[in-house]
Amino acid sequence: MSGSNSSAPGSAASSSPEPLSFAVHSLPDPRSATRQRAGRWKMLLLLALCAAPVVASYFTFYVIKPSGSAYGELIVPTVEIPADLPLTDLQGRPVSAASLHGQWLLTVVQPAACGEACERQLYVQRQLREMLGKNRDRVDKLWLIGQDEPAPRPELLAALSQKGVEVTVLRVPRERLAAWLKPAAGKALSDHFFLVDPMGRWMLRAPADPDPKKLKGDLDKLLKASAGWDNPGR
Question: Which residues partner with 83 through β-bridges?
Fold first, then answer.
């Protein structure tokens, strides 16, 4: 009917507007970021505490030197054993360089035939370790021979053993060894004792034909300085 105010159902006039709604998303919690930063600082502090004894021991020995200068020659910077240094035992089995980590290594480089001078050095090596007393279990004896040399005489190896502690004998190519250990000017590798730390770093070279008591003094200082982080055995 004309003039009627009624509207058809469903028409635009009969529908009422929907109210607007707002979705509020949660904002980042500032406390979470603070906790993350605190966690990172705690981790860094823990790493610093773990490294501090190592750093302090080397700083003491190399920089402060409370007992005077070393008898042997300190190697600065230290020289890490090459990870790919080809080592084999007396049975020809490969030995990884990393397996030498974890102990101080009192090292000699001598031929397997081992004459009088070689035998004297190996006996001094054995005695030096024994002179360290309660710290001797932190030191291993290492004898490096040429790659193609036969095994040393069994009676010599037996004589070098003491209280069940044998000298570790490994073969290595001499030209590859020269990339790690070096003699003093005018000397040969066989003239020296080489001291390697538990992290596999060559750090001291003894004079040729050293005074055992003076060399022991160097060993005592190093073992004392590293007592906070170095334990016997690997």
Answer: none
Give the start-to-end residue ranges of the domains of the chain.
73-211
Which superfamily, per CATH, for 73-211? Answer: Glutaredoxin (3.40.30.10)
Exposure of 75 by Cβ count < 10 A (0-12 exposed, 13-18 middle, 19+ buried)?
A: middle
How do the pLDDT tens digits run along the chain, 234 residues long? 444 444 444 444 444 555 555 455 555 555 666 767 777 777 767 665 655 555 555 555 555 444 457 999 999 999 999 999 999 999 999 999 999 999 999 999 999 999 999 999 999 999 999 999 999 999 999 999 999 999 999 999 999 887 778 899 999 999 999 999 999 999 999 999 999 999 999 999 999 999 999 999 999 999 999 988 888 887
Helical H segments across the chain, by residue range: 30-59, 116-131, 154-160, 174-177, 212-225
Would you state the structure tokens that stand for residue 117, as one six-digit string? 């001078």
Site of tokens 């170095």: 230
Angle at 138 between CA 102 and CA 165, to 5 degrees: 105
- 81: number of Cβ within 10 Å: 19
Q: Helices then strands (H, E): number in the chain?
A: 5, 8
Give the single-character DSSP code of 92.
S
Are 71 and 204 in contact by the 8 Å Cβ rule? The answer is no
The pTM assigned to this predicted structure is 0.73
Residue 29 DSSP SS3? coil
